């Protein structure tokens, strides 16, 4: 049976999600873990893996754009108008929530696949709060603030190829120098592989939706990896599937959970876990709500803006990602101060960090 263009997009999106789930489960890739380990123990392996993924995503995506394979100016990240306030504040709110919930949206999907039921709660609250902000009870307030703070940019990204590739040479050089600064990182095979693979998966997302999915009569929205709105869409699809069309984002979400599940079962890491203490639940609930609201305001998460958005060289994505990093750093500083004021910090073992933080 011959598949239609839209069916190819869905099947390939599922494959991308499966690949992300497998590598995410095996490596523990996530910005939360990266920032947490860097600040608490000075271990920069996860942060370098994230930087490597960003470098690969930028180089691959911009090569596609320059070659005319995809037109990244058609993505949601390159809009002529942007609310500087909500973009930065939303990013900070997401970063803060990511730390409080012990994982971003992508990492929560991976943890759910390995049996972590805390992540199920996080995903439900994140998805619902994101849709409440985009089109629900908080939608009118978001729209009003957007109108009051929106600025029109002469260009949402670099206007010429020369400017674009000059920036890539400088910024990419800085990323490469950071990656290679610690020679020990290159010996961490899983971290290196995760950075390479996830960066390539961002590029693959653009190819699937922007080239394979290109159809003048039934165009596929130009998207790649992102995990806030798609989690909300997946929840909505589970409830009203007969009234919705299955989308690339929803099948990627499903693929991540399935890929993580298969990898966890294969490695003996699958285990049903819940909350160890009831006092932890409010922290997870707050973190999830902050991620949902913040991700909706910033139009992306640590993957959606930090990798996919940054791969388009969107100025708005740069602001959002800076906000995410700032919010994460602030949450970690407050967390350390809170622990220091009550009891000595108890260091987690490597396996505990892999299972619980992301």
From TrEMBL:
Annotated keywords: Cell inner membrane, Cell membrane, Membrane, Transmembrane, Transmembrane helix, Transport
Coiled coil ranges: none
Location in or out of the cell: Cell inner membrane
Keyword GTP-binding: no
Principal location: membrane
Topology in the lipid bilayer: Multi-pass membrane protein
This protein's record includes keyword Transport: yes
Membrane-crossing residue ranges in chain numbering: 12-35, 47-70, 82-99, 120-142, 162-180, 192-214, 234-263, 284-307, 313-332
Pfam family, one: Sulf_transp
Annotated family: Belongs to the TsuA/YedE (TC 9.B.102) family.
Protein name: YeeE/YedE family protein
Organism: Orrella daihaiensis
